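Notes taken during the Thursday session

The instructor put the following on the board and asked us to keep it in front of us for the whole hour. The protein is Arginine--tRNA ligase. We were told not to look anything up and to reason only from what is written here. First, the residues (567 in total):
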Amino acid sequence: MYLEFINQVVSVLENAVQRAGFEPVEIAPEPSQHADLSSRVAFKLAAVARKSPVEVANQIVENVQLRENSLIESIGTTGPYINIKASRTYIDCTFETVRSKKEDFGGNFYSGKILLEHTSANPNGPLHVGHIRNSIIGDTLTRILRKTGYEVDAQYYVNDMGRQIAIVSWALEHFEMDPDLKSDHAIANVYIKANARLEDDPQKVEHIDNLMQLVESGDAEVIKRFDDAVDLAVKGIRSTLLRMNVHHDSFVNESGFVRSGEVSDIVDKIRKTGRTDVDDGALVVDLSDYGFEKTLVVQRSDGTSLYTTRDIAYHEWKAMQADRIIDILGADHKLISGQLKATLNAVGLKEPEIVIFEFVSLPEGSMSTRRGQFITADELLDKVQARAFEEVEKRRPEMSPEFMKEVAGMVGIGAVRYDIIKVSPEKSTVFDWKAALDFEKQGGPFIQYSHARASSILKKAGEEGIWDPASKPNASVLTDESEITLIKQIALFDKVLKQAADDLKPHIIAIYGRDLADAFNQFYRFSPVLGAETEELRNARLGLVDCARIALANVLDTLGMGAPESM
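Then, after some discussion, the predicted structure tokens were revealed:
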């Protein structure tokens, strides 16, 4: 509804500018403390018109024409600023639209197909804390882009033939996996042992190199060994991802691009650019004119390809599958991602849009680690969910263990996802599980609790026979400041969805969710619902509670968080 409001404002002002005799100019109204929207268009026109901005603003407003039932109440001036106030129609239409569209409220204004790659951790062990931000940013962006109307294919690019996988394959031949461990954790254990053995006996490194040559040349036995190792690790990784409510549509193996001949083809295309040279037997690409002093190696001296080479072939394939390509990468990939884009550009291929994120860390001493190992995502999730269970048990001791476990799962995973996503990707962040689970702070649990509160109010009203979800309350009786503020906050959902999708900044939705929950709680604090003065007002306020519940549920779903009906 907010986007429709903005469109009407732009159209009205453009027509007023034209009728006032000024040259057409871009109009971009912005939020204002003094009105619902404000425009600085008079400043743009003043110099050309040789008039003061105040005079220009007054002339524009004098030529404003509003149609009947417009979403605009009035357009006036404060000095050189043009201020726009939303009409009662805007309030009532928002109320009715939310209740009629329900889970479809918000978005659906874009089209096209996007291929979005995220996580893509090496399958040589479990996901660790460092991977979590990649997964959550990628999954949340997928949800945002789908909500705005795009068809999105979320992909995990599986490194199934690099040196690390060769070591895992070799490790499985020399060390026994612990059957009591989750498969990806068991893989990590033998991988660590193998690396220690290789350090003690460097001659065995030649055997690893040989395995890499054999798998690239198509040796069936070695390929099967690699595939078996990768399958074990990916099985465990997928389990962890699903636990975090992170979903991929497809897992694409990099080896497929070697076996299909696409890697050889892309190397030939790179050679034809005239940028290649041989350095100590390896084929390298000169990207100095793109600002990279360091050359990019695309083929080793033994003729085998590198991860980067296979990644270029993967991106050529992706370019044929979608209108847009998006990669979610850590800050340590800035150089290689830049070289990747430059190489693709040099051979005339579509470049990906790359979201670079800084790393997430844990406060010192926040939880224990096994000596010599990283903190796994599973360990972190176990700790957070256990703490969430304690909190739910303390607050709702009368409830069943099944209820406590279900809510603790929603709250724990929601707390992790929200605390990670609330920070803009380019900023580093520290995940503090105690702060994330603090119900008193405006974090994930605060938004979930607001949804649960709205659901409980409606449930109680239904049990008392004073609320029918199919009813059509009279929204025009909602005139209190807290009521209008809440409705206007709900109406902003379209705007923040568009901004988050356009800028690829998922934290915008997280901030909006917090503000929406705050607006709902302020409304509930100042506007009695079940105890309203009249039946008509009570029904309207119950309808507004329903609007808030719907909007909160849609925001939580977009953030990949559960929407509990009771907490």
